[in-house]
Specification:
Oligomer: heterodimer
Strand content of chain B: 5-15%
Order of helices and strands of chain A: HEEEEEEEE
Radius of gyration of chain A: 16 Å
Helix content of chain B: 40-55%
Strand order of the largest sheet of chain A: 6-5-4-7-8
Largest sheet of chain A: 5 strands, antiparallel
Shape of chain B: globular
Number of helices of chain B: 9
Structural class of chain B: mainly alpha
Number of helices of chain A: 1
Low-confidence stretches of chain A: none
Number of domains of chain B: 2
Mean pLDDT of chain B: 87
Number of domains of chain A: 1
Shape of chain A: globular
Low-confidence stretches of chain B: 192-211
Order of helices and strands of chain B: HEHEHEHHHHHH
CATH topology of the largest domain in chain B: Peroxisomal Thiolase, Chain A, domain 1
CATH superfamily of the largest domain in chain B: Thiolase/Chalcone synthase
Distance between the termini of chain A: 30 Å
Distance between the termini of chain B: 45 Å
Number of strands of chain B: 3
Chain lengths: 137, 211
Amino acid sequence: MAEYNRPLPLPTPETQHFWAGCREGELRLQRCTSCKESYFPPRPFCPACSSREVEVYRASGKATLYSYIINHRPRPDFGDKPHSIAVVELAEGPRMMTNIVDCPQTPEALVLDMPLEVTFEKANDEISLPKFRPAKG
Amino acid sequence: MKQKTVAVVGAAETTEMGKIPNTSQLMLHADAALNAMRDAGLAAKDIDGIATAGDSPVEVAHYLGITPTWVDGTSVGGCSFMLHVRHAAAAINEGLCNTVLITHAESGRSRVGARRFSRDPASQQGQFEVPYGITNPPTMFTIPALRYMKQYGVTEEDIANVAVVQREWAAMNPRASFRDPITVDDVLNSRRTSRRSPSTFSARARAARRR
């Protein structure tokens, strides 16, 4: 697909587990084993209490729509139609940037706090991007 | 901070304003600097500190013929230059230098000698934001706005009024690019016709509609 002329992430040692998870179809978060805070983006320490004792776990993939914009400015690599750029709040707490997919890119279809679920968009053999779609049921 | 020990002794803008396609970004720094130095009655040899953001303070110092003993390249967005003023005052107070030149230049429309925006794909933004299509203010500053509107009950008209009031202030500035008064309706209607001129605000108003 032409769409993967888009910019893609270059994983670093600290984020490998996250991108490996996406490649395997699971959303991985990290959590502090002392203060129990879940956080994102990935790093080998807790941003809430500075502990290095952290673990990786599989997140539920459930989220709600925190905020978004529908971009009308030209981005040929994203196609010729307006597209959403969103921030979702994961059920585990952290927020992440993403696109909302599998639904019309309109204000009527995209309502703040609507329930969402993760889906993975394969860009190449290394990278799949976590995206979100309206939750089914 | 110690009071009344440091003063702004000169200030100026570039000689021309608006679109300046015949001048590089580095020369815009120098043009504004030369005007400010003339305003203060100073020359390069009188200046021993320099600060800028976006471009390198080393490059600006070399270009102007300044040999600084104090330099500040703090670069944290549009507020960098206000921080430079604080840093410069602190440095002068501390005896690190006597006279600081602070410059800002952006060949924002003509892009002559302007640095390209690029983000390392291994950076935090490169890994976790850029792949979703953010590029510049219309796609970055607007995302929090929609949440803010829902959380605080702010309407599209409220936000449109910000642009209206900003234009009122601009009308008082003879060097402003846009000085004609606008109304809230003008701002709200601009989004329907603004594919050719999608200002940050029209994108924000567009986001606001999606509540």
